[in-house]
UniProtKB/TrEMBL annotation:
Coiled coil: none
Domain BPL/LPL catalytic: from-to ranges: 15-197
Organism lineage: Bacteria, Pseudomonadati, Pseudomonadota, Alphaproteobacteria, Hyphomicrobiales
InterPro entries referenced in this protein's UniProt entry, alphabetically: aa-tRNA-synth_II/BPL/LPL (IPR045864), BPL_LPL_catalytic (IPR004143)
Protein name stated in the entry: Biotin/lipoate--protein ligase family protein
GO molecular function, one term: ligase activity
Keyword terms: Ligase
Amino acid sequence: MPVDVRSVGRRELDLPPLFSLHTLRESGDAFASAQALAPDRGAGTLVWARRFDLVEFAVVLEPEEPLALARLVLYPAMSALADAIAVHCPPEKPLAFGWPDALHFDDGLVGGGRLAWPAEAREDEAPPWLVFGVMLRAAALGAGEPGTWRIGTTLEETGFFEGVDTGAIVESFARHLMANLHEWQEAGAKAAARRWLERFPGEEGAQHGIDANGDLIVRCDGEEERRAFRAALAEPSWLDPARGEPWL
């Protein structure tokens, strides 16, 4: 049953009170726009690009922690994204993360999240802002047939519940993000990492963990491998740089 991509332009979003909506036309870049707005608009600014084929939005955060710890917000934010999808998708369809920032739905890549901060921000100081951006492929408008893609899929192709529009996903994300950030503040980053790991299939036969700095730890056959979190954020794993959209 298809996502109602046509409803993108028909209404405004119903967001929690702490969020301030800034909308863009179809050609806008939500992630870049949120970074440009962050110094003046501040925390809670949510930029939404009214795309028909993509769920594209970004939110501004103002962390109190030093940057080295603050960027771990990617984990509760990704969990909020998956929670938002889970509200609307058929329960038998699996949702899984690819480390650290990709979202797979029904074994196909639909997109993911990414994180930005000011270039001059110091690791040992709280950054003035962070931006968490999301891009998910809702429909295959102008991108060929999903069945011919190598790794990608769309929400429409994988059977979203009828009547769910892309704006509803953004609204759900905002509510889940508030809940997950509250849990992060109360229970700490380890709890947020554990929630993320619940949706991470990882490698067969291996044990996986998230270190205090966000690194992925993989233990297998008595050996331990560390995958650097900060380096992984430099190039989103789900983003085709040539097309500026999720890999097909």
